[in-house]
Specification:
The chain has 331 residues and is an alpha/beta fold. The chain contains ten helices and 14 strands. 41% of the residues lie in helices and 18% in strands. The strands form four sheets. The chain has a seven-stranded parallel β-sheet with strand order 3-2-1-4-5-6-11, sandwiched between helices. A three-stranded mixed β-sheet has the order 12-9-14. The longest helix is centred in the C-terminal third of the chain and has 22 residues, at 309-330. The chain is globular. 48% of the residues are buried. Bound molecules: uridine-5'-diphosphate-4-deoxy-4-fluoro-alpha-D-galactose.
């Protein structure tokens, strides 16, 4: 029996594969390598290059490898890109997931862990947002993921699908042992951008918006270490295998940090005071989004181990330095 990890060559997916292999699981990765990297896939996992909507391929993987559960990361995830090309996001995130679900259910594979997002909530305030809050996404990215949550909900009722949908807050950091990390080109994520600035890959960075209704005027987010995030997926798998009920859970720590606090942490941990420019707001950024984090601990027994911003930054920096060293050796 094996676990199918879609998008397992990507940032979060590759960390999930590491965690599954570390736990002694048999892992098959399905990734189209549109944004993922072959080199990120653990050598003990079998990488199949292909599309989640390719029913014949997925059927073959299920029967050849005895797939009993699926962890579905394959998706597009850049919020501003979803605004300029929404149909591409509905295709990648919604339509293709519908095809995957249909193939899985036809083959009686009913355990499904889904990468959802805090973007399903839309504009929230400084108060932690609970899973019961209204879902009013403000981007096609958020809508594309919310539509998939609805498909899961209705498929659970109609076909007996058992799933856990995890709504990720801001994922950052890298494997503490340095085996994987974020390789995204032209990254837009705050911690990645700040770490790239600290190692000299960028000349400096910008703070997008200093006039938000937050304590220091910059946006507040709940940053979660990628290794803690994947441990939540392992807990979700265990839960489903034990016959646990279908759940939709926030995946964050419940603590918010402003953009300036994050940059200050990266400068302190790295010891590099890279240039930082104050700039206008970036379109589509909600002022603050912090997870109500009680339910995942209560329902899955999730115990984060790396919930400390300087640790997240330290691991992200270690990864960035390793890559900066590799690129300069290759040059
Ligand atoms: N920011 C900067 N400068 C930068 C990069 C980011 O000031 O160079 C700011 C952004 O404007 C924002 C904050 O840092 O205020 C966080 O931005 P990120 O791009 O790191 O992350 P987002 O909060 O925009 O998006 C993340 C995920 C999405 C998810 C969303 C949910 O990337 O997939 O959280 O809140 F939908």
């Amino acid at each position: 029996m094996a676990v199918l990890v879609t998008g397992g060559a990507g940032y979060i997916g590759s960390h999930m594969v590491l965690a599954l292999i570390d736990a002694g699981e048999d892992v098959v990765v399905l990734d189209n390598l549109s944004t993922g990297f072959r080199a990120c896939v653990h050598p003990q996992a079998r990488l199949v290059v292909g599309d989640v909507a390719d029913a014949a391929l997925v059927e073959r993987l299920i029967s050849e490898h005895g797939i009993e559960a699926v962890v579905h990361f394959a998706a597009k995830l850049i919020v501003p890109e979803s605004v300029t090309d929404p149909l591409d996001y509905y295709l990648a995130n919604t339509v293709k997931t519908r095809a995957l679900l249909s193939t899985l259910l036809a083959a009686n594979v009913k355990r499904f862990v889904f990468s959802s997002t805090a973007a399903v909530y839309g504009t929230t305030g400084m108060e932690p947002v609970s899973e019961d809050a209204a879902t009013l996404p403000i981007s096609p990215y958020g809508s594309s993921k919310l539509m998939t949550e609805w498909m899961l909900r209705d498929s659970a009722a109609a076909y007996g699908l058992n799933y856990v949908a995890l709504r990720y807050f801001n994922v950052a950091g890298a494997d503490p042992l340095g085996r994987s990390g974020q390789l995204t080109q032209n990254a837009t994520h705050l911690i990645k951008v700040a770490c790239e600035s600290a190692v000299g890959k960028r000349p400096g960075m910008e703070v997008f918006g200093t006039d938000y209704p937050t304590p220091d005027g910059t946006c507040v987010r709940d940053y979660i270490h990628v290794t803690d995030l994947v441990s939540a997926h392992l807990d979700a798998l265990r839960h489903l295998r034990a016959g646990g009920e279908t759940l939709t859970l926030n995946c964050g720590y419940g603590t918010g940090y402003s953009v300036l606090e994050v940059i200050d942490t990266v400068q302190r941990v790295s010891g590099v005071n890279f240039p930082v420019k104050m700039s206008p707001r970036r379109a589509g950024d909600p002022p603050a989004i912090v997870a109500g984090a009680a339910r995942i601990r209560a329902n899955l027994g999730w115990k984060p181990a790396l919930d400390y911003l300087p640790t997240i930054v330290e691991h992200a920096l270690k990864w960035e330095r390793k890559h900066a060293a590799k690129s300069s050796a290759a040059a």
